Amino acid sequence: MIGYMKLAVLPATVRGRIGVVFCLALVFPWTFPLYAQSSPGGESPLSAVQTYRIGRDLEAAGRMTEAEPYYNETIRICRDEVSRNAANRDTYTAITWALQRQKKYDEVISWGEQGLRLFADEYRIMETMGEAYFYLNDYDRSLDYMQRYTNAVPRGERSSVAYFFAAEIFRLRRQYYHADIAYTTALRLDPGVALWWYRLATVQEALEDYAGAAESFTRALRINPTYPESTAGLARVLER
């Protein structure tokens, strides 16, 4: 009742805005967290990096529909900062991350190039551009950016991913010794990805390292017991 009385004395335009937000929260509840979290407890709005990470966590939980508004908000924040000449390293990093999640690889390259012209040592952008070039099937440029990233920050947050993409390129080019080394390095940094163990196993099998392949297929199955390709691969190399 007290809350209602306080609301009643507000100007009509303010009451109208509050009513609109309340209605939106009821009709579109999945969008409300974006507004609610933008200024928790009256604090400053979330940064582009923060909104991106909320979206990424939602996507990782299989909630891509809910993640999209956060990626869009990340892009909006970054574009606004650029238009106001308030952009920094995080601006260009976050927008490339968000566009990457939306599979807008050409835009990743465009914004990444802009960012690197201003911040030539922003290695986070380099790694993202390496992924974008991979999905655009430009393996030479992808490998170049991944190598630049891993040379600069060999134990960076995305180093294991960078080594994995480099390994993928070597595998696709049938450079199996190089692929073996790159997959092994990726797994040394992050041993918990079944796909990476599976890919290493296929390369070891191609190199006729059947004992190594059997071990790698087994490691993949420990992480994901319902992995039919690894099950078939293990049976295949055990016959050898």
List keywords for this structure.
240 residues; mainly alpha; 14 helices; 75% helix; disordered N terminus
Unreliable spans = 1-11, 13-33
Order of helices and strands: HHHHHHHHHHHHHH
Shape: elongated
Helical proportion, percent range:
over 70%
Largest sheet: none
Quickly count the helices: 14
Q: How much is the radius of gyration in Å?
A: 23 Å
Indicate the structural class. Answer: mainly alpha
The fraction of residues assigned to DSSP E strands is under 5%
| Count of individual beta strands | 0
Overall average pLDDT: 88
- Quote the distance from N terminus to C terminus: 78 Å
Provide a compact summary of the structure.
This protein has 240 residues and is mostly helical. Helix content is 75%, strand content 0%.
Question: How is this structure best described in words?
Answer:
With 240 residues, this protein is an all-alpha fold. The chain has a domain at 9-102. The chain has 14 helices and no strands. The chain has helices at 2-8, 12-27, 32-36, 48-60, 64-83, 89-101, 105-118, 123-135, 139-152, 159-172, 176-189, 194-206, 210-223, 228-238. Helix 8 (123-135) packs parallel to helix 10 (159-172), helix 9 runs antiparallel to helix 10 (159-172) and helix 12 runs antiparallel to helix 13. The protein is elongated and about 65 Å long. The protein starts with a helix and ends with a helix. Residues 1-11 and 13-33 have low confidence and may be disordered.
